Here is the input.
Amino acid sequence: MIELTHAAWVLIADGEKALFLRNVTDGADPYLDVIRKEEQDNPKDIDQSANRPGRMADTGHGQRSALDDTDWHELAKERFASDLADMLYKQAHKGAFDAIVLVAPPETLGELRANLHQEVKNKVIGEVPKTLTNHPVDEIEKIVKKELESA
Here is the structure.
């Protein structure tokens, strides 16, 4: 069982939005206060792509194959996770938090984890692989508490 201590942070993120919360009570009855919101403008891939996918000659006579186009939407999500990791490092380095719980969909959580500085990794007390960015804060409190108790 992991307890959400007083002043612990909770990061709720997906590939486009993030909510930084701080627990102002204790783990038995967490009350999360919003301390920062981040949002990235990330249009659908089709809106970001400039051209149709390219083609290249194959080994056979007159044959051509399509090349995969870059998924700009997915790249922006990965970049957002990297930016969040940088923000967390700056805050951890300033001593803004001693403990943090990361809450994000599995793909984003993996991307975030891969980009975290060791100083932040040492402060991670739990991870919740769920998408909670569109949930109200009172629901987030209940879900995070339940997930940490079962960890």
About this structure: Strands lie at 9-13, 17-23, 32-39, 55-57, 64-66, 100-103, 124-128. The chain has a mean pLDDT of 84. The domain at 9-39+71-149 is CATH 3.30.420.60 (Nucleotidyltransferase; domain 5). The longest strand covers residues 32-39.
